[in-house]
Amino acid sequence: MADQRTDPVYHREGQMYAHNTTLSSIAPLSSLPASTQPLFKPPPDTTKTPYILTSPSTIFHAQGGGQPSDVGTITLTSPTPDGNDPKFTVHQVRKVDASAAILHLGTFAPEEPRFTDAEVGLEVKQAVDVPTRVLHSRLHTAGHVLGLAIHLLSRAGEAGLPRDLRDGKASHYPGAAFVENIGLIPGDAKARIQDKVDELVAQDLGVAIHFWTGEEAGTKCISGLDGAAVGEGDEVRVVDIGGLGSYPCGGTHVACLKELGRVVVRGIKRQKGISKVSYEVVDA
Ligand SMILES: [Zn+2]
Question: In whole angstroms, how far apart are CA 271 and each of 180, 186, 215, 275, 279?
Fold first, then answer.
Protein backbone atom coordinates (compact mmCIF):
# COMPACT_ATOMS: atom_id res chain seq x y z
CA MET A 1 0.00 0.00 0.00
CA ALA A 2 2.62 2.52 1.08
CA ASP A 3 4.86 1.76 -1.89
CA GLN A 4 3.07 3.97 -4.40
CA ARG A 5 4.33 7.56 -4.31
CA THR A 6 1.61 10.20 -3.92
CA ASP A 7 1.69 13.39 -6.02
CA PRO A 8 1.59 16.28 -3.50
CA VAL A 9 -0.70 18.62 -5.47
CA TYR A 10 -0.43 21.20 -2.66
CA HIS A 11 3.21 21.79 -3.65
CA ARG A 12 2.01 23.46 -6.84
CA GLU A 13 -1.53 24.50 -5.87
CA GLY A 14 -1.37 25.96 -2.37
CA GLN A 15 -4.85 27.47 -2.55
CA MET A 16 -6.69 24.43 -3.95
CA TYR A 17 -9.20 23.28 -1.33
CA ALA A 18 -11.09 20.54 -3.24
CA HIS A 19 -9.67 17.93 -5.56
CA ASN A 20 -10.85 14.75 -7.28
CA THR A 21 -8.61 11.70 -7.40
CA THR A 22 -9.13 7.95 -6.92
CA LEU A 23 -9.02 5.62 -3.95
CA SER A 24 -5.78 3.58 -4.03
CA SER A 25 -6.10 1.75 -0.72
CA ILE A 26 -7.95 1.66 2.58
CA ALA A 27 -6.80 -0.38 5.58
CA PRO A 28 -6.88 -0.19 9.39
CA LEU A 29 -3.97 1.69 11.00
CA SER A 30 -3.18 -1.59 12.79
CA SER A 31 -2.18 -3.11 9.43
CA LEU A 32 0.79 -0.71 9.08
CA PRO A 33 4.25 -1.82 10.25
CA ALA A 34 4.61 -1.58 14.05
CA SER A 35 7.32 1.07 13.60
CA THR A 36 5.00 3.34 11.56
CA GLN A 37 1.85 3.23 13.71
CA PRO A 38 3.23 5.44 16.54
CA LEU A 39 3.76 8.30 14.05
CA PHE A 40 0.01 8.85 14.21
CA LYS A 41 -1.94 10.37 17.11
CA PRO A 42 -5.06 8.48 18.17
CA PRO A 43 -8.13 10.06 16.52
CA PRO A 44 -10.14 12.50 18.72
CA ASP A 45 -12.83 9.86 19.29
CA THR A 46 -10.84 6.85 20.50
CA THR A 47 -13.86 4.54 20.20
CA LYS A 48 -13.58 4.75 16.39
CA THR A 49 -11.22 2.50 14.45
CA PRO A 50 -8.49 4.55 12.72
CA TYR A 51 -7.96 3.78 9.04
CA ILE A 52 -5.22 4.74 6.60
CA LEU A 53 -6.29 5.89 3.11
CA THR A 54 -4.04 6.50 0.11
CA SER A 55 -4.62 8.09 -3.30
CA PRO A 56 -2.41 8.77 -6.35
CA SER A 57 -2.53 12.51 -5.56
CA THR A 58 -3.52 14.69 -2.63
CA ILE A 59 -4.25 18.28 -1.63
CA PHE A 60 -3.89 17.38 2.08
CA HIS A 61 -0.65 18.87 3.43
CA ALA A 62 1.38 16.15 5.14
CA GLN A 63 2.69 17.22 8.57
CA GLY A 64 6.29 18.43 8.36
CA GLY A 65 8.58 21.43 7.97
CA GLY A 66 6.97 22.98 11.05
CA GLN A 67 3.47 22.93 9.55
CA PRO A 68 0.68 20.70 10.94
CA SER A 69 -1.46 18.31 8.87
CA ASP A 70 -4.51 19.43 7.04
CA VAL A 71 -7.84 18.03 8.18
CA GLY A 72 -10.98 17.52 6.09
CA THR A 73 -13.05 14.84 4.38
CA ILE A 74 -12.79 12.30 1.57
CA THR A 75 -16.02 11.07 -0.07
CA LEU A 76 -17.03 9.32 -3.29
CA THR A 77 -17.87 11.71 -6.14
CA SER A 78 -20.99 9.57 -6.65
CA PRO A 79 -22.42 6.68 -4.58
CA THR A 80 -21.73 3.11 -5.68
CA PRO A 81 -24.50 1.28 -7.64
CA ASP A 82 -25.53 -0.47 -4.40
CA GLY A 83 -25.79 2.88 -2.62
CA ASN A 84 -22.59 2.86 -0.54
CA ASP A 85 -21.60 6.49 0.13
CA PRO A 86 -18.96 6.64 2.90
CA LYS A 87 -17.59 9.79 4.49
CA PHE A 88 -13.98 9.56 5.65
CA THR A 89 -12.95 12.27 8.14
CA VAL A 90 -9.22 13.01 7.85
CA HIS A 91 -7.53 13.79 11.20
CA GLN A 92 -3.83 13.55 10.36
CA VAL A 93 -1.68 13.25 7.24
CA ARG A 94 1.90 12.00 7.17
CA LYS A 95 4.60 11.21 4.65
CA VAL A 96 6.63 8.49 6.33
CA ASP A 97 9.17 8.14 3.55
CA ALA A 98 9.91 10.60 0.75
CA SER A 99 9.51 7.91 -1.90
CA ALA A 100 6.35 6.38 -0.44
CA ALA A 101 2.66 7.19 -0.33
CA ILE A 102 1.21 10.04 1.71
CA LEU A 103 -0.91 8.44 4.43
CA HIS A 104 -4.28 9.95 5.42
CA LEU A 105 -5.40 8.84 8.89
CA GLY A 106 -9.13 9.09 9.44
CA THR A 107 -12.28 7.56 10.80
CA PHE A 108 -15.82 6.73 9.76
CA ALA A 109 -18.86 7.53 11.88
CA PRO A 110 -20.07 4.44 13.77
CA GLU A 111 -22.80 2.46 12.00
CA GLU A 112 -22.04 4.46 8.84
CA PRO A 113 -20.83 3.01 5.54
CA ARG A 114 -17.07 2.58 5.10
CA PHE A 115 -14.68 2.43 2.22
CA THR A 116 -13.72 -1.17 1.51
CA ASP A 117 -11.55 -2.80 -1.14
CA ALA A 118 -14.71 -2.75 -3.31
CA GLU A 119 -14.31 1.01 -3.70
CA VAL A 120 -10.61 0.91 -4.69
CA GLY A 121 -10.20 2.59 -8.07
CA LEU A 122 -13.34 4.70 -7.73
CA GLU A 123 -13.22 8.49 -7.94
CA VAL A 124 -13.14 10.35 -4.62
CA LYS A 125 -13.41 14.01 -3.69
CA GLN A 126 -10.90 15.44 -1.23
CA ALA A 127 -11.99 18.55 0.68
CA VAL A 128 -9.62 20.21 3.12
CA ASP A 129 -11.05 22.21 6.02
CA VAL A 130 -10.54 25.72 4.63
CA PRO A 131 -10.31 27.80 7.87
CA THR A 132 -7.70 25.39 9.26
CA ARG A 133 -5.66 25.43 6.04
CA VAL A 134 -5.84 29.23 5.74
CA LEU A 135 -4.64 29.66 9.35
CA HIS A 136 -1.76 27.21 8.75
CA SER A 137 -0.80 29.02 5.52
CA ARG A 138 -0.92 32.42 7.24
CA LEU A 139 1.21 31.23 10.17
CA HIS A 140 3.69 29.51 7.85
CA THR A 141 4.09 32.53 5.57
CA ALA A 142 4.32 34.83 8.60
CA GLY A 143 7.27 32.74 9.81
CA HIS A 144 9.07 33.44 6.53
CA VAL A 145 8.27 37.16 6.75
CA LEU A 146 9.53 37.35 10.34
CA GLY A 147 12.69 35.47 9.36
CA LEU A 148 13.17 37.80 6.39
CA ALA A 149 12.67 40.92 8.55
CA ILE A 150 15.30 39.68 11.01
CA HIS A 151 17.64 38.77 8.14
CA LEU A 152 17.33 42.23 6.55
CA LEU A 153 17.92 44.03 9.88
CA SER A 154 20.88 41.76 10.63
CA ARG A 155 22.59 42.37 7.30
CA ALA A 156 22.03 46.13 7.66
CA GLY A 157 23.54 46.00 11.15
CA GLU A 158 20.37 47.54 12.61
CA ALA A 159 18.73 47.18 16.03
CA GLY A 160 21.85 45.66 17.57
CA LEU A 161 21.46 42.46 15.55
CA PRO A 162 24.73 40.67 14.72
CA ARG A 163 25.51 40.74 11.00
CA ASP A 164 26.29 37.02 10.93
CA LEU A 165 22.93 35.89 12.35
CA ARG A 166 21.74 32.68 10.68
CA ASP A 167 18.30 31.07 10.34
CA GLY A 168 17.63 28.10 12.59
CA LYS A 169 14.57 25.93 13.23
CA ALA A 170 11.01 27.19 12.91
CA SER A 171 7.56 26.03 13.96
CA HIS A 172 4.31 27.35 12.57
CA TYR A 173 1.84 25.61 14.89
CA PRO A 174 -1.12 27.68 16.12
CA GLY A 175 -0.37 29.00 19.61
CA ALA A 176 3.27 27.86 19.45
CA ALA A 177 4.81 29.57 16.42
CA PHE A 178 8.42 30.73 16.47
CA VAL A 179 11.52 31.19 14.36
CA GLU A 180 14.98 30.54 15.74
CA ASN A 181 18.16 32.36 14.81
CA ILE A 182 21.69 31.22 15.53
CA GLY A 183 23.22 34.25 17.27
CA LEU A 184 21.99 36.69 19.90
CA ILE A 185 19.09 39.06 19.25
CA PRO A 186 18.81 41.65 22.05
CA GLY A 187 15.39 41.87 23.74
CA ASP A 188 15.08 45.56 22.91
CA ALA A 189 15.20 44.76 19.18
CA LYS A 190 11.60 43.56 19.37
CA ALA A 191 9.99 46.90 18.42
CA ARG A 192 12.31 47.36 15.42
CA ILE A 193 11.64 43.79 14.23
CA GLN A 194 7.88 44.44 14.56
CA ASP A 195 8.26 47.62 12.47
CA LYS A 196 10.18 45.76 9.78
CA VAL A 197 7.57 42.98 9.64
CA ASP A 198 4.78 45.58 9.40
CA GLU A 199 6.68 47.33 6.60
CA LEU A 200 6.99 44.10 4.57
CA VAL A 201 3.32 43.20 5.10
CA ALA A 202 2.22 46.75 4.16
CA GLN A 203 4.00 46.33 0.81
CA ASP A 204 1.64 43.38 0.12
CA LEU A 205 4.52 41.46 -1.44
CA GLY A 206 3.66 38.47 -3.62
CA VAL A 207 4.54 34.94 -2.49
CA ALA A 208 5.82 32.75 -5.35
CA ILE A 209 6.75 29.07 -5.56
CA HIS A 210 9.67 27.98 -7.73
CA PHE A 211 11.27 24.63 -8.49
CA TRP A 212 15.01 25.23 -8.75
CA THR A 213 18.03 23.00 -9.19
CA GLY A 214 19.85 22.21 -5.96
CA GLU A 215 22.71 24.44 -7.13
CA GLU A 216 20.46 27.42 -7.83
CA ALA A 217 18.62 26.98 -4.53
CA GLY A 218 21.89 26.64 -2.64
CA THR A 219 23.18 29.89 -4.13
CA LYS A 220 20.04 32.01 -3.92
CA CYS A 221 18.25 30.87 -0.76
CA ILE A 222 18.72 32.68 2.54
CA SER A 223 18.72 29.56 4.68
CA GLY A 224 20.53 26.37 3.81
CA LEU A 225 19.15 23.23 2.25
CA ASP A 226 18.21 20.99 5.15
CA GLY A 227 15.54 18.45 6.02
CA ALA A 228 12.85 20.93 4.98
CA ALA A 229 13.98 20.82 1.34
CA VAL A 230 11.55 19.01 -0.94
CA GLY A 231 10.95 18.83 -4.64
CA GLU A 232 10.44 16.63 -7.64
CA GLY A 233 13.51 14.57 -8.51
CA ASP A 234 16.59 16.78 -8.34
CA GLU A 235 14.51 19.94 -8.04
CA VAL A 236 14.18 21.90 -4.84
CA ARG A 237 10.90 23.60 -4.01
CA VAL A 238 11.49 27.19 -3.01
CA VAL A 239 9.20 29.91 -1.67
CA ASP A 240 10.11 33.48 -2.61
CA ILE A 241 8.83 36.49 -0.67
CA GLY A 242 8.49 39.42 -3.05
CA GLY A 243 11.93 38.86 -4.57
CA LEU A 244 13.52 39.85 -1.23
CA GLY A 245 14.22 36.39 0.12
CA SER A 246 13.89 32.72 -0.87
CA TYR A 247 13.69 29.63 1.32
CA PRO A 248 13.57 25.89 0.54
CA CYS A 249 10.13 24.85 1.77
CA GLY A 250 7.47 22.14 1.47
CA GLY A 251 4.57 23.97 3.10
CA THR A 252 1.55 25.98 2.00
CA HIS A 253 1.47 29.77 1.89
CA VAL A 254 -0.80 32.72 1.23
CA ALA A 255 -0.57 34.33 -2.23
CA CYS A 256 0.27 37.84 -1.02
CA LEU A 257 1.20 39.33 2.32
CA LYS A 258 -1.99 41.33 2.89
CA GLU A 259 -3.71 37.95 3.47
CA LEU A 260 -1.64 37.58 6.65
CA GLY A 261 -3.59 40.17 8.60
CA ARG A 262 -1.18 41.40 11.29
CA VAL A 263 1.91 39.44 12.28
CA VAL A 264 2.54 40.10 16.00
CA VAL A 265 6.04 39.56 17.41
CA ARG A 266 5.38 38.10 20.87
CA GLY A 267 8.77 37.77 22.49
CA ILE A 268 12.46 37.00 22.17
CA LYS A 269 14.21 34.36 24.27
CA ARG A 270 17.93 33.61 24.20
CA GLN A 271 19.47 30.30 25.22
CA LYS A 272 22.78 28.62 24.37
CA GLY A 273 23.57 31.09 21.58
CA ILE A 274 20.16 30.71 19.91
CA SER A 275 17.47 33.38 19.82
CA LYS A 276 13.88 32.21 19.61
CA VAL A 277 11.36 34.79 18.38
CA SER A 278 7.73 33.84 18.96
CA TYR A 279 4.86 35.27 16.94
CA GLU A 280 1.22 34.90 15.99
CA VAL A 281 -1.14 36.18 13.32
CA VAL A 282 -4.26 38.19 14.09
CA ASP A 283 -6.89 39.65 11.80
CA ALA A 284 -5.88 43.14 10.69
ZN1 LIG B 1 7.22 27.89 3.61
Answer: 10, 12, 33, 7, 18
| Residue 43 identity | P
Ligand 1 center to residue 62 CA distance, Å? 13
Question: What span, in angstroms and rounded, lies between the C-alpha atoms of 199 and 202?
Answer: 5
Q: What's the 164 CA to ligand 1 centre distance in angstroms? A: 22
In this prediction, residue 84 carries a pLDDT of: 87
- How far the first Cα of the chain sits from its last, in Å, is 45
Instruction: Give, as residue ranges, everything with CB less than 5 Å from ion ligand 1.
Output: 239, 249, 251
Rounded to the nearest 10°, the torsion over CA 137, 139, 141, 145 is 170
Residue 165 and residue 104 share a domain: no
Spacing, Cα 187 to ligand 1 middle (Å): 26
Indicate whether 1 belongs to any domain. Answer: no
Q: Residue 65: which domain range? A: 7-128
Secondary structure tally for the chain: helices H, strands E? 3, 16
How far is the centre of ligand 1, averaged over its atoms, from the C-alpha of 172 (Å)? 9
pLDDT in tens, 59-88: 999 999 899 999 999 999 998 888 889 999
- For residue range 168-189, what is the model confidence (pLDDT) as tens digits? 999 999 999 999 999 999 999 9
Please check whether residues 79 and 142 belong to one and the same domain.
no
